[in-house]
Amino acid sequence: MQYVIADQENMLRDGSIKLHGADGFAGMRRAGALAAAALDMLIPHVVPGAITAELDKLVLDFVLAAGAVPATVGYRGYAHASCISINHVVCHGIPSEKTLKDGDIVNIDITVIVDGWHGDTSRMFLIGDVPLRARRLVDVTYECLWLGIEQARPGKHVGDIGAAIQAHAERQRYGVVRDFCGHGLGKLFHDAPEIVHFGRPGTGPELRPGMFFTIEPMINLGKPGVKLLDDGWTAVTRDRSLSAQFEHSIGITEDGCEIFTRSPGGFDHPPY
Ligand code: MF3
Ligand code: CO
Ligand code: CO
Q1: Quick check: 197 and 166 in contact, CB under 8 A?
Q2: Tens digit of pLDDT for each residue in 150-159?
């Protein structure tokens, strides 16, 4: 595995792992804070009856008003400022005229670009009265993200993150999605390395200061399998079981990691 210093900003998606300096951390802090603030802004609007396309419009307006742009508009043909994934939708749910219903669990995923830097984060929202089984899935998925983050420090390996997440999810007999993963990011949206949410400790690339990547476990109440709908984006659980996800963008520091996408309002997990 190849590591390159990113101070002469390297824009190539060439499989190398970029190691960033102080300017990168400063840029990611601003991008991450804006993405997280967009999720905070949505909280009072994510209620029973809300139309997902209107939530997406709120995100678009908020990001543009901040002088930034959504990374997802125009990304491989995607046309929206957010992904809104309801119940058995695993990820990449497309905003539409669909409304949120009492008892739904919903992931909203936002990526923004600020001065070229990408901030990518998602959280779960509970709509009205959510059954205990679904709330437990959401809580455990948040714990999985944190157990992954706790492994993120120099000397650890990418496989330590996946192993910690997989162990916790499978202890509850939940399924860890294999078909989507976390990713390096920075000036690029999706870059090396892949951060899979399962695996063996000590395997994969070693973590070094200056690496930027996301951790974004998708955990199913049932089996891990997913399928893609005909729209080419929406991923759903094969067994139609509920799925949950949380995502942070982080940077490896000398002694741990910095989380770029913490909620400015302290609303990192529901209930908000
Ligand atoms: N934000 C997603 C991720 O976590 C990617 C969404 S790409 C889109 O990597 F085109 F579906 F928006
Ligand atoms: Co991501
Ligand atoms: Co995302």
Answers
A1: yes
A2: 999 999 999 9
